[in-house]
Design goal:
Elements: E1 14-17, H1 23-34, E2 38-43, H2 47-59, E3 64-68, H3 74-88, E4 93-96, H4 114-145, E5 148-153, H5 167-187, E6 192-199, H6 212-222, H7 231-242, E7 253-256, H8 260-268
Parallel strand pairs: 1-2, 1-4, 2-3, 4-5, 5-6, 6-7
Helix pairs in contact: 1-2, 1-7, 3-4, 4-5
């Protein structure tokens, strides 16, 4: 599982962050690198942002490499893991942040059309493929070394049904939530920790546009803490869970949304 670090650092660890070139994934990669981990930054179509993340990690004194590939595809996932391990060493920390393309997602009732039914099925399949492919590939090595840490990036609204018209996201993330519990039970005896970190609304380029300001205002009004999370807020929770201080934490689901999901749960209770 890499070095044992009582000070919370990740020196001696190797991390793979899928979808690590932008937004939340980039913040996670930078934060893990800043704590001393060597980080493989996975991306699909944008080498320049991924390269900037790698440069930032290297400037902080850690090793990093950008690895291209759609981890929802089996062959591409195998190549990503092989290149990451070849460049940095065997993977101790896997952060499953990849979600597949977001450009086709639009609001639509779940069962009002065959189009929406098919979209939900596709999104759930893509999400599970991105997660399962990587877990399947890194778990044998973690077992052989006596442990590791897997973090699944969820969505805090999924447990309350998500936003109206966005069943595509809620169902996919809910399926991943259940997978996280299954993996925590199955892999615990091997010393492998599996936890889910679930952001709420986080302003990134993925949701940038004319409606972003209105979404942020609504989220801030609904959150007990009165603010939305930033990518770095999510990254800090991930770093906490993969550090030695959390070695007794597995199967956890941590919402990082300023408490907004508390109100969502009450609303549907």
């Amino acid at each position: 599982m890499g070095a044992t670090n009582a000070d919370g650092s990740l020196t001696g660890r190797v991390a793979l962050v899928t979808g690590g070139g932008r937004g939340i994934g980039a913040a996670i990669a930078r934060t893990l690198g800043g704590r001393g981990a060597a980080v493989a930054v996975n991306y699909v179509n944008s080498p320049e942002p991924a390269g900037e993340v790698v440069a930032d990690i290297e400037a902080a004194g850690s090793r990093a490499v950008a690895v291209q590939g759609d981890v929802g595809d089996t062959a591409a996932a195998e190549r990503v893991v092989r290149e990451a391990a070849g460049a940095l060493g065997e993977i101790d920390i896997l952060v499953c942040n990849a979600f597949g393309p977001t450009s086709g997602i639009r609001r639509q009732p779940a069962v009002d059309s065959w189009e929406s039914v098919a979209a939900i099925q596709r999104r759930a399949a893509v999400q599970l493929a991105c997660t399962l492919n990587c877990c399947h590939l890194v778990v044998p090595g973690m077992r052989a070394r006596g442990g590791g840490s897997i973090i699944l990036i969820g969505a805090s609204g999924s447990r309350a049904g998500g936003a109206p018209g966005l069943a595509e996201i809620a169902v996919a993330k809910s399926a991943q939530d259940t997978l996280g519990l299954v993996l925590a039970r199955e892999l615990g005896p091997d010393g492998i920790l599996v936890n889910t970190v679930a952001p709420g609304l986080v302003p990134t380029d993925a949701n940038a546009g004319e409606h972003q300001a209105a979404m942020i205002a609504r989220a801030e009004a609904e959150a007990p803490l009165g603010r939305v999370s930033q990518p770095e807020d999510v990254a800090e929770v991930v770093a906490m869970l993969v550090a030695d201080g959390a070695r007794q934490v597995t199967g956890a689901y941590l919402s990082v949304d300023g408490g907004r999901s508390l109100g969502m749960s009450l609303a549907v209770g």
